[in-house]
Amino acid sequence: MAKRFASHTENEIFDKRSKNIASSTEKANKRASNLLREYLSEKNEDTHFEQYSRGRLNDVLKHFYLDARKPDGEMYKVNSLDSFRYSLNRYLKAPPFLKEFDIMKHEDFNESNQVFKTALTELKANGKGATQHFPIISEIDRKKIRGAENMDKVTKDTFIVKTDPKTKTKYVTKEMDELTKNHRFNDKENVTAIMPEQPDSPSCPVAAFQKYISKLHPKCNRLWQRPLGSFYEDSATW
Question: Are 170 and 163 in contact (CB under 8 A)?
Fold first, then answer.
């Protein structure tokens, strides 16, 4: 008689957990772990921090949060350091390490978390906490985007990803056709609202936009599509 319930071995459970991590999340986790590993290497410390005791990891982190720098020696922005800490925590809790402690909440990391707050205060004092603001979308444009009568006119090509030539920062902006570019009513229309990326953030809006576009049905050019009833993370379309 066939059995109703499935049976999973520990190895099978481990494999399923490993495959359930989104590629973007895995990349962010890897960046964070590599940054800490490079830091430890420069300080002539054991780079296998995954094997550290809680006490030793706490001690390393309280120095790392204050010492972390970009490759050019510049301080990171507040959002970047916060994302690194968040990703490092996920890295340790994910397979194959499966740490049961949380470096952001566990009492054994109280000291490093207090230092983390100090590091954020220092970054803000050095001008690394300000968010760059861009022109907001006008009320008229919001109504155009939101209006149901225009939904079918918004296609995969309505918005595109560009790169700022000065900062090398990617951003999403509305594509302009030749008629729009050549027939401006006034100079104010030259100001275009954009959605900038947050490269070290697990919720980067540009990465989310690109992933959304990649999961749309290839034979349908509309931007707004009805999702499938069910799908997997690695499915071609959602």
Answer: yes
d(C-alpha 150, C-alpha 146), whole Å: 8
**Taking the complete model, does pTM exceed 0.85, yes or no?**
no
Nearest of 120, 132, 22 to residue 80 by alpha carbon: 120
Q: What is the C-alpha separation between 117 and 82, in angstroms, rounded?
A: 10
Per-residue pLDDT of the chain (238 residues; tens, 9 = 90+): 777 777 777 777 666 666 666 777 888 999 999 999 999 999 999 999 999 999 999 999 999 999 999 999 999 999 999 999 999 999 999 888 989 999 999 999 999 999 999 999 999 999 888 666 667 777 777 766 666 556 777 888 888 899 988 888 899 988 864 334 444 444 444 446 788 998 878 889 999 999 999 989 888 888 888 888 887 777 888 8
